[in-house]
Amino acid sequence: MKFDLYATVILDQKKLKPLDYGVPSHMQTDVAEGSRVLVSLRKQVCKGTVLYVRKKSALKSVQPLLEVLMEKQKIPEDLFALANWMSKYYATPLRKCLNCILPSAVRDDKNAKQKIFIKRSISKPKLIGVCAELRAKHPSQASICEEMLKHDNGIFLSDLLNETKVSMSPIETLIKNGILKKELHTIDRTHLMNDEYFQTLPKTLNDEQQACFDSISKSLKSNEFHTHLIHGVTGSGKTEVYLQLMQQAIDDGKSIIMLVPEIALTAQTIERIKGRFQTGVAILHYRLSDGEKLDAWRNIMNGKVNIVVGARSALFSPLSNLGLIIVDEEQDGSFKQTDDMPCYNARDVSIVRAKLNKCVAILGSATPSLESYKNAKEGKFHLNKMTTRAAKSQLPTVSIIDMRLDREGSTHHRFFSQTLLTKMRQRVALGEQVILFLNRRGTYSTLKCEKCEHVLECPHCDCTLTFHKSEHHLSCHLCGYTLTPPPTVCPSCHSGETIKFKAPGTDQIERSLNAMFPDIRTLRMDGDTTRKKGSHDRLFKQFRAGKADVLIGTQMIAKGLHFPSVTLVGVLNSDGSLNIPDFRSFENVFQLITQVSGRAGRSELPGEVIIQSRIPEHDIFKYASTEDYVGFYHSEIKSRKMFHYPPFSHLIKITFSGPEEKATFEFGKAFHEALLTKLPAEFTLTPTVPCSLSKIKDRYRFQFFLKGEKVMIASKLIAKFDAETKRPKDIGVVIDVDPRDSL
Ligand code: ADP
Ligand code: ZN
Ligand code: ZN
Predict the structure, then answer these.
(1) Residue 193's pLDDT band (cuts 50, 70, 90)
(2) Alpha carbon distance 291, 105 (integer Å)
């Protein structure tokens, strides 16, 4: 068949090169780059995206496109360009990048929730007549008519069945006889306009906030691409600045994306935004069902929404007239996708999307990533500083406790220094609140034999098993394997009574505290206590309402929370992460201590932070205890430069996984060797070695790193090489450009 136009289509599901299809004349006006289409392939109907439309095809005969999916499914131009950029930068096939941008709920569209709606097909007076006629012989039909008379505009079938308590068959009969009719109505499950939030008014900005606002406001007005870094200490009022800039963008008819770390997507954050903007806000979080996601996407497409707040994937919201992208806590690891390709960092992709839209990107943080701060210092980003807390509060005082000296007392005392215990009691006696931070959940994360040093590990993964006292089992936090009850005899040397729990988790800390001070009320927040939907918010509310004196938690409590009566924060083990041999480990510890400290003294009551450590002389504590980011930056950037680590170079991590150890390693090694022969000399490769978690869920894992400056060149080479390499079916390869760590 001959066509005037040909569309090159990339299919969603099939790993094939893009294919040409003819555009039938009646579709010509509807088909463009990014259009979603149905095509046939070997008698199957497939969905795909149009890459481009041309007058010619190299093929002699092509099939016609079957259908253009509804206009609302077209991938907007900027997102289409973004997918192309991601494909190149992250060495990932375009098909996967398109699938990443278009949520599966939208791609499949099977979840458009439709409900049957019943209306009358005859006039009201006629229905009254019919109702009277049916009364004697068909009472159930009559009661349906009666109910219908109460609903002039019709009623959902489910409600009708509920009200009348009849079966389907009398309704079917009435429909067959032309008295009632069925319609399909699409339901919006986002409840956009229903929530009510207490409205807050803009605050008068202080001088530093105002300067920051003015500088960014100027960029917004320019309608040009600009990136601003706001380096503001915890509590400096970054959120207020965001809100006022958002207002300005809205007033100018622009739309906004705000990204926040996954765990900061709490009721408290949502309240602050919805309290200012009552309508047009969509909150996208991972707990949304596919249906809710689809509806939210439609509302964004239709322009009902002009502010989207969410975790990393919210960046791909199809907003038109984008004016502002905000990335709060820009250094946060949750902006990076690591398990699936494309392994993108939403912070970096935000900047590219802002550039494509000639709009403004704001990165905000109390502890910017070294990458961003370096960019700001070199003038690629505008640097805005906020050095004081906004509300009437001071930065907390921080003291470091040497745990090598403070080891007296009972078992319970092992986890707490005397200083921390004394201060905790004092604060609680004054009616103030305390937060204790520990980066480990469960009761104990290690069970170790003191005689032969044997440690109990998961049989499917390369990690230790964690003891959970309330379930009385050992469990693997990677794969969910459990062992009940925990062994009392060492499985290796078979000696009894030498097998001991080590490394306490949040659960044990709570138990110890309760044992020492039965009158202190505790709450615990970690992966175990927040598993159920809504439990997160419930625990926050309880603590905020003063239902507990001490909140014990993991990572989860470090970010963005605002508890006015918390005056003391204790960091129980700060050292663990410092010993991890990763180029970013000092940066991570610095960020964590700063963020946790930021939870103390956020109102008029002065705050205090106690950090327990076995290596208190470490430089990191000097900087963290004074929230001296700039000092930290200068010291850390020196060592990064010396070892040629990011931000002075880029890393690409290539991970191989497979069910057989030897075959996986051999494949990785062959890949490594072949790549090496093609690589320009400016790049280096590390050897292929087992990953630091060398086995997860019975799959063995190996990796190597590429290091170099021109990341696009390397990505292109690797992608090409990966596409050309024949890979056994059971071996997986993940290419991670700019990985979070070098582990
Ligand atoms: P950050 O996000 O920088 O950690 P927040 O935006 O949470 O800081 O602000 C900290 C506190 O200061 C909040 O309670 C906020 O309401 C208050 N605040 C912010 N700006 C002002 C202002 N200009 N005047 C008074 N209070 C302010
Ligand atoms: Zn043993
Ligand atoms: Zn496991």
Answers:
(1) very low
(2) 7
Residues 6+ positions from 53 with CB-CB distance below 8 Å? 5, 6, 7, 8, 23, 31, 32, 33
Q: Spell out the SS3 assignment of 333-373.
A: HHHECCCCCCCCEHHHHHHHHHHHCCCEEEEEECCCCHHHH
Residue type (1 letter), 40: S
Residue of the CA atom closest to atom 23 of ligand 1: 205
d(Cα 268, Cα 178) in Å, to the nearest integer? Answer: 53
Which atom of ligand 1 is nearest the CA belonging to 206? 23
d(CA 446, CA 558): 24
Q: Ligand 3 mean position to 510 CA, how many Å?
A: 26
How far apart CA 436 and CA 524 sit, in angstroms, is: 9
Q: Nearest to residue 308, comparing CAs of 296, 298, 321, 290?
A: 296
| pLDDT tens track for 363-420 | 999 999 999 999 999 999 999 999 988 877 777 888 888 888 755 544 556 788 889 9
CB-hemisphere CA count at 13 Å for 547? 10
pLDDT digits (tens, 9 = 90+) for 615-625: 888 888 889 88
| pTM listed for this prediction | 0.84
How far is 6 from 63, CA to CA, in rounded Å? Answer: 10
Alpha-carbon distances, residue 294 vs 186, 274, 325 (angstroms): 12, 21, 22
| Half-sphere exposure for 702 (CA within 13 Å, toward CB) | 21
DSSP 269: H
Mean pLDDT to the nearest integer, 277-297: 84
Chain-centroid distance, C-alpha 5: 41
Task: Read off the pLDDT of residues 530-551 as tens digits, 9 standing for 90 and up.
Answer: 888 778 888 888 998 999 999 9
**Best mutation site among 231, 240, 327, 329 for ligand 1 pocket (most ligand atoms within 8 Å of CB):** 240
- The ligand 1 site (C-beta within 6 Å) comprises 203-206, 209, 232, 234-240, 390-391, 562
Q: How far is the CA of 597 from the centre of ligand 1 (A)?
A: 16
Q: Cβ(439)–Cβ(579) under 8 Å? A: no
Q: Which of 58, 7, 15, 67 has its CA nearest to residue 40?
A: 67
Rounded to 5 degrees, what are φ and ψ at 356? -60, -30
The residue whose CA is least distant from atom 9 of ligand 1 is 237
Predicted local distance difference test score (pLDDT) of residue 406: 57
Terminal alpha carbon distance of the chain: 55
Q: Which two tokens stand for residue 170?
A: 């009398």
Q: What are phi and psi of 317, to 5 degrees?
A: -65, 135
* Spatial contact of 353 and 315, defined as CB atoms under 8 Å apart: yes
CB-based contacts of 477: which residues, under 8 Å, 6+ apart? 441, 442, 463, 466, 527
Mean pLDDT estimate for the chain: 88
> How high is the pLDDT of residue 136?
87
The 10 Å Cβ neighbour count of residue 390 is 20
- Please name which of 592, 242, 260, 612 lies closest in space to residue 403, comparing C-alpha atoms: 612
